[in-house]
Task: structure prediction
Amino acid sequence: MNSSGWIRGYMSKNLKAEEFLLHVGGNCVERQLKEWDDNFEVNIMKFKDYVFVVKNGEKYYEMTLSEEDVESLKNRSPYALDREIWMELKGQGVAVFDGYGDYLERVLYV
Result:
């Protein structure tokens, strides 16, 4: 999957925290996961905090983000929220593969 840094920068500055999280989770993280395995699903729920859930078959990977966390990360850099999500997923055992466009290079290797 490929990503445009210019467009992402514009989005991180102009979208509200929830809109940005929904874009990152649904349009970027889920799309990348589905390139590897079509069984992946991403669900983002809002309670007191955001609960970010990735499902693949019977396996679930979950993380919690406060609205302040999302706002802080989106203001730090255009890909900081993605990086936080991917590092947590990797830590929980999601296999990450190279060679699928520049999106993961922008997120993980910058």
Notes: The radius of gyration is 13 Å. The chain has a mean pLDDT of 91. The chain has five helices and three strands. Strands lie at 40-46, 50-56, 59-65.
